[in-house]
Design a protein that fits this description.
55% of the residues lie in helices and 17% in strands. It is of the alpha+beta class.
């Protein structure tokens, strides 16, 4: 899919934005769409969303989502309640959307820090560059490390380095020292 040919993505992003607005839900777009926004490269086949939810709201929000979108798996509400991710599909465009329940401290803060931006022909809430870097380092796949490094390289003079390091330090307590180590490797490379 060409970056400029996002009509189906625009339609699906608009539906998500409208759903969240009507249901008073804070959200951010992350993943491939956020990379496309911040780096203007790469393509993606799906949309990753994080919602700011309380544990007791997962079931009811999942039910509401399933009135507008199709489940990808059987027993979608049970899957959402156990894994905190609801894989759905836009019935009109066929685009897959992975909705995650932003229950934890970092994810909740990232949703709250999100900002409204123009993406192609629509306005959406997208995660900040700093939070996208952390999300990518947590995902820990080779492509995610490459994305994190490119984000740091492109935005090195604009990044909130203290926020990045303090946030990455929180993952050390969660036995994810790799997040902090990779971050500092990239920061040392581009902050000379």
């Amino acid at each position: 899919m060409n970056f400029l040919d996002l009509t189906q993505f625009e339609q699906t992003l608009l539906k998500i934005d409208k759903f969240c607005s009507q249901n008073h839900l804070l959200y951010i777009v992350l993943g491939g769409v956020a990379i496309m926004y911040h780096l203007e490269y790469r393509t993606t086949k799906d949309i990753d969303i994080s919602l700011c939810l309380e544990m007791e709201a997962i079931h009811s929000v999942g039910e509401k989502l399933l009135r507008h979108f199709e489940p990808v798996f059987d027993n979608p509400l049970e899957f959402f309640e156990h894994n905190f991710v609801l894989p759905i599909r836009d019935p009109e465009t066929g685009i897959r959307i992975d909705i995650s329940a932003g229950l934890g401290g970092f994810e909740r803060a990232a949703v709250e820090r999100g900002r409204r931006v123009k993406f192609a022909g629509v306005e959406i809430q997208v995660c900040t560059v700093e939070d996208l870097i952390i999300f990518k380092l947590v995902a820990a796949r080779p492509i995610d490390y490459a994305d994190a490094e490119m984000l740091i390289q492109k935005y090195c003079h604009e990044l909130d380095k203290d926020y990045l390091q303090n946030t990455a330090l929180e993952f050390v307590q969660l036995e994810r020292r790799d997040v902090f180590e990779h971050l500092n490797e990239y920061l040392n490379k581009y902050f000379v």
